[in-house]
Design brief:
- The chain has 13 helices and 15 strands.
- With 390 residues, it is an alpha+beta fold.
- The protein folds into 2 domains: 178 residues, Aminopeptidase (3-Layer(aba) Sandwich); 198 residues, Gcn5-related N-acetyltransferase (GNAT) (Aminopeptidase), CATH 3.40.630.30.
- Strands 1, 2, 3, 4, 5, 8, 9, 10, 11, 12, 13, 14 and 15 form a 13-stranded mixed beta sheet that branches.
- A hairpin with a 2-residue loop joins strand 11 and strand 12.
- Helix 6 crosses helix 12.
- The chain is globular, with a radius of gyration of 21 Å.
Amino acid sequence: MTAQSVTLTRVGAGASTRDFMRVPHLTQGHDPYWIAPVSLFAGPLSFGEGPRLSPKVNPWFQHGEAALWVAGRDGNLAGRISAQLDHNHLKLYMDDTGFFGFFDCIDDQVVADALFNTAFAWLRDKGMRRCVGPFSFNINDEAGLLIDGFNCPPRMMMGHAQPYYRRLVETAGFTKIVDMRAYLTPMDTALPYKQLKWLRRGLARNPRLAVRTLDPSHYDEDIAAVMDIFRAGWAENWGSIPVTAAEAKHMAAEMKYILIPELVAIATIDAKPVAMCLALPDFNELIRDLKGRLFPFSWAKFLWRILTRRSYVSGTRVLLMGVLPEYKNKPAGSLLALLTVGAVREASLKLRMPVCEMSWVLETNTQTCHSIEDIGGRIYKTYRMYEREL
């Protein structure tokens, strides 16, 4: 195959968003572990990733800009990629770094190189000197390329890939920055009895300290408190970009469909939220067989699963977990973290959701890695972040 036989078309200038969303169905649709994303919207955004790609719907576009391309070969779709700038990242880090994402490709290096070279050219035109990814669209969304753990489905908001994707990316000149771990943690063994006894004693001895679940009648306020803790607690993490108020509101609206209040634990001191752990029933279990479409025929099945999610779903994912900075690296911080995780553990067992994914965790965050491993977690998927100079 020659480079001349590959065509690159930008979405909106010859290619459609639907073409872009069709590519992973072609490259990964044969894989029984790949789960096609679905849209909760009707009309033009009723398929797959439509809402996430729409500037009218996704608040990321309030501080980001992106270009999307599809690759063709001999008249057939062969790959896709995005290149994007996050202006909040650039203001925070001032590092002339752009991102790539939404990478899917047939097993052909010529196609992959054409995709990457087109993305690099766009980023260079924007003044960028470095490319990092994959992000879809930034670190607060799907992040990292799956490099290990292909033999089981991903949990919600975690990506999937074919094993050869890694070779395509690395041959294109990318090198590793950091790996991100996904831990599978059995809830029935996650906290030994001695730890639970110590936690309960800590609660009893400190009347200022309490742990509660999310209050549905104050949903917006409680989610806002959760997001405030997340922003503060994760501000120093690699690549962190604070979630904007608009993004937090959008996330809260999306989570409301599937959230179970008992799976959100909020620790308070003098009634002020200081730590939290938020787990969601695995959305991917609800959509695994829908092939990316709710309309016109699958919406009733999906709605029934949402309504019966307490009994339908068997697993969860801890999406957000954190402690305010003033309690980090102190005994009180460990107590607060274990209290919230322990509360989610007990709720999970009562709901008969015995297995939880805790993700993602940077390999360099050794304290958190050891804490999860100490309560029975094992690494079952690894995602890699890459960089390349432009």
